[in-house]
Design goal:
alpha+beta; 2 domains; eight-stranded mixed β-sheet; seven-stranded mixed β-sheet; globular
Length: 392
């Protein structure tokens, strides 16, 4: 299983279950430990995602995959280096014997430190910056103390040998964390729910419902499908989050306001003032360079009536990007519309966007060889871009 996997299929009975971490997933690195040694598990926050920076000359994107101490100490490495990327990690469970040291720095604090670190590397003024996470979790690196401190991954003496530890190793406790398994049966009709291994929304084709795993249960999710222009079997529906928000610091309540902000030529039609503005965020994981795709469909502001029945045998691309993370992308979507020379762009940090509502919308794309095309909104996407996270 990979870190983004959420659906687990039992190889014996073929029953599917959804993995629920409670708050965040916890992993432990593999180890080589002599028999009888007590293991000390040292914690690291690990963040994987995209860093967006709105600087003077435009939006910069950077893929990041980094770790940081969750418990400050001079005697343990500041990060995991590449261990979390090259070693096969396992979920923490009560079966892991030893003492787990507890994080003293919250993930939010670690995230802010990382933000400051990357912001300092940009050699121009940054007006706004945000992290779009693909995964964040807690990873434990194992150690043991004999005549000295040993790195249990390598079963070798650790690089830094303290005369006296600056953390209390006796404060660690056995792990009580465990994964929860949620059966993927429709709460409405008891039909098997459908989803990919990294889906964050599950679909019931029997009663045309969508379900979002939440804590220890499935919550029904409102959704709709835009009907295709032509009836054809070569249609793939891509998921988007249509988000309504209260925006302050800039006038953006209607489609007419959007046209003004984008500074498009031509007269604004009176009826455009009556069309409420919505953000359209991606409902699937994406490459950094694909992010403008969300801005393009937001600019189109689709107004078609939505269907609430899932057609038989229709291809629904899995929802792999949660709405909570999608809401963190709204200001970057907005920044794509604003000229870098505009005073609005320089005041991005003062613009406030408060999401108020959201709806999952499936948009039909015509499958044409190597591309998916949406003719009504003049959108196209290469399949190789869309499926990159499934192929590694």
């Amino acid at each position: 299983m990979t870190e983004t996997d959420r659906l687990f299929t039992c190889e014996f009975c073929r029953v599917k279950s959804y993995l629920l971490p409670g708050d965040y997933f916890r992993y432990v690195l593999p180890m080589k430990v002599p028999e009888g040694e007590e293991i000390i598990y040292y914690p690291y926050w690990r963040f994987k995602g995209i860093l967006f920076s709105c600087a003077r000359h435009g939006i910069r994107e950077k893929l990041i995959n980094i770790s940081y101490q969750a418990l400050e100490s001079r005697h343990f490495p500041l990060s995991l280096k590449f261990r979390d990327q090259v070693l096969k990690m396992q979920f923490v469970s009560p079966k892991n014997e030893g003492r787990f040291l507890h994080p003293k720095h919250s993930f939010g604090e670690a995230r802010e430190k990382l933000k400051q670190r990357f912001e300092s590397q940009i050699k121009e003024r940054v007006y706004y910056q945000t992290n779009i996470s693909e995964a964040f979790n807690l990873i434990y690196s194992p150690y043991y103390v004999k005549d000295k401190l040993y790195d249990a991954v390598l079963n070798e003496p650790a690089k830094y040998q303290p005369a006296e530890f600056d953390v209390n190793l006796s404060e660690g406790t056995p792990s009580e964390w465990r994964l929860k398994f949620l059966p993927t049966l429709c709460p409405n009709c008891a039909w098997d729910l459908e989803g990919d291994r990294d889906s964050v929304v599950l679909i019931c084709r029997n009663c045309s419902t969508a379900w979002q795993p939440d804590q220890d249960r499935l919550t029904r999710l409102k959704f709709g499908l835009i009907p295709p222009d032509k009836k054809t079997s070569d249609i793939t529906y891509l998921p988007f989050w249509r988000i309504g928000a209260q925006i302050s610091g800039i006038d953006l309540d209607s489609f007419a306001d959007l046209v003004k902000i984008a500074n498009l030529p031509g007269a604004i039609k009176p009826e455009w003032h009556e069309i409420p503005f919505h953000f359209w965020a991606l409902g699937f994981r994406f490459r950094p360079k694909m992010f403008s795709f969300a801005s393009k469909i937001t600019f189109s502001q689709p107004l078609q009536s939505l269907e609430d029945e899932i057609p038989e045998n229709v291809k629904l691309y899995p929802v792999t990007y949660p709405v909570g993370e999608a809401m963190g992308t709204l200001k970057i979507i907005l920044a794509n519309f604003i000229s870098t020379k505009s005073i609005r762009y320089r005041k991005l940090s003062k613009i406030k966007i408060e999401p108020k509502s959201h709806l999952l919308v499936y948009v039909p794309f015509v499958d044409i060889h190597l591309e998916l095309i949406q003719p009504s909104f003049n959108l196209s996407i290469l399949k190789s871009q869309l499926y990159y996270d499934k192929e590694g």
